[in-house]
Each structure stands twice: as structure tokens, then as C-alpha cells.
Amino acid sequence: MTILITGATGLVGERLVPRLLAAGFDCRVLVRPGRRCPEGAAAVTGDILDPASLPEAVRGVSAIVHLAAVFRTQDTDLIWRSNLEGTRNLIATAQAAAPDARFVLSSTSNVYDADTPHPGREDDPVDPKHAYPASKVAAEAELRASGLTWSVVRFPFVYGDGDGHLDSLPRYVGTWHPAQRMSTIHHRDVAVAIRLALEGAFDRRIVNIADEAPTSVYELLRLLDAPMESGSEPLSNPWHLHVDGSLARRLGFRPTVRTVYQALQEGSM
Q: Which of 68, 96, 137, 231 is spaced 20 to 30 Å from 54 by Cα?
């Protein structure tokens, strides 16, 4: 099976591509000029914002794994152009050049409302106000209406394999309530989920992917030796950033790294 992967040099893609290659997939990656190609993959130079560069990348593939996205920037125009317009370009190219290919879109659990009354579920209404999750919701809608064989995989906080993502957490949670829990997923299980999507287990579904134990920011920072001030005030949004992963379990997903503590014990942080 030949797969096109966008965002292959990003935090998730850099760790996903080697796992897909090891599983026997023929990986083709879309890389911008000057970017290195992951070892073992075939590179096609192009950009999702340049529609003319996409047919060569898409033609002949059995599946597309669309990881490319922009999120940590104050440039909201760039976020919308990359995450929505770029996805539209890729969808249109797939419709023309590979209409039978599966199209797997990586999305985010940040789409769920902060005041949700339960862990975020795939059938919850979503109307995020920030550019990154809002652009992802818009991209999801474009894909669902495309007529392609699609799936949307919503990931929570991704970590592991020395990616530095957890290490960056103290910069963002200094004002959070210490008891705020959030769902997490290890890179190893991102690959597990993507493989299921490529096999068709998630066809025409939005699916939350998460491990077994949402963990408080207080605990996460202690694991990093970056303690935060404790407190016992009531937590106003107890389900914020906590997702319901039961649909994924029904569809066959089983995390191999069940908790952050397991990753710590295995030395795979």
C-alpha cells in the first residue's frame, strides 16, 4: 500500500513515518523545498498551499494521511490558510487524481467546549473560538462533504519519543488549576490509531484517540521536576481537555502505552 503523508517532518510525522515504514507501508511524503526526507520514504517536493504541486504527490496512492498543520503562532491568517485552504487543496487533488484513496485527517481534541458536561464525545456539538481548533473543525467538515472515503482522528496532547512536548508544558499551564486533567496519547499509539484508520476501521467516522488515564497538570509537572503551586479550590471546568475514547475502543483501538507513568517506567518519554 502506497501512502502519502503530509507533515512528515513535524512533531507527529517525524515519529509516525518510521513506524509505518517498519510496518511495511510504502511511504511517500510531501516535503517543502529544502526539507529533508525521512529515511526510507520517497519524497515529492510540494506544498499544500500550492495546488499545482500536489497531483504528482497524490497520483497512485491508496491512502493519504494529512498531518500538516499550523498551530503555535499568533498569525491566525496563516493558521486558516494552512489548515483549511491547504486541506481543501489536498481534497480537491485527491478527488481528481486518487478518488478511491482513503483520506485520514489528523485533528485535535481542542475542538470540544471548555465547559462540556462530560468528557468530549465525537457527537458533541463543537464551535471553538480559537483559530487552530476552529480551522480544524472547518477542515473536518470539508472532508466529510468531499465524497471521499474519509476518517477524522482527533488526538489530545501527544508526547513521547523525546519529542520535548511534555518538557514545554510548564510554559503554558502556569495559571491553570493544578487539578485540571487532560487526555494524552503516546506517539507509539498515534501509529496504532493511524494504522487502524488505514485499514478502514474508522471509515466515515470521527474518532477520539486517547490513553487510559487523563492526568492532572500538577502530576505532569511533578514528573518533569517542575512543581506548580497546589490548591483545593473548586475546578470550574472538570472535563476540559478530557476526551471520551470509548468509540475507538469499540472499533479496535488498544493503547500500548496506557499511561504517562508507563512511558516513564519504560524510558519512552
A: 137
